[in-house]
Amino acid sequence: MSTLQRSRPVKTVKTLSDYRTFARELLTFGFVGFLGTVITIGGANLLRHVLGGGPLTSVIVPTVASTITSYVLNRHWTFRHRDSDGTGREFALFFGLNGVGMVIQVLCTGFTYYVLNLHGSVSYNAALVAGMALGSWFRYWSYRKWIFTPAVV
């Protein structure tokens, strides 16, 4: 069995409780994402436009800060009812998968800045938001699949 998979019983019938759990997860994940967005966009704009940082460095630094915040909030709030093996595997996977999400963000910003040659604040922020949206979709999917898995009964 892969280290990324755990055996669990197959459930075919969804209960009202399953839908409530999913809705709560989605809402709290969204709130954590909102906080991460504030950290990332605010930090990127501070670094880029106030402190004069490079376009990609200005995405990477606040994204790392947002990732740390997101891990703590998602582990202890959004997905608190899901298993954790406590070995550091979850932590390593979380940061690895967030690295993929960050690459998605950096690619969107880099494409806009270097390929399309759009250097203005509006285009920078549009690329940042697009990259964050794509990266967030990937993160939510990957967290549910590999990190914050349902408790095995």
UniProtKB/TrEMBL annotation:
Membrane topology: Multi-pass membrane protein
Keyword annotations of the record: Membrane, Transmembrane, Transmembrane helix
Residue ranges of the TM segments: 26-47, 53-73, 93-116, 122-141
Location of the GtrA/DPMS transmembrane domain: 28-148
Coiled-coil segments on the chain, per record: none
Secretion signal span: none
Superkingdom, taxonomy of origin: Bacteria
Chief location: membrane
Keyword Nucleus attributed: no
Organism: Actinomadura rubteroloni
Location in the cell: Membrane
GO CC annotations, alphabetized: plasma membrane
Protein name: GtrA-like protein
Keyword Mitochondrion carried by entry: no
Recorded family membership: Belongs to the GtrA family.
GO terms under biological process: polysaccharide biosynthetic process
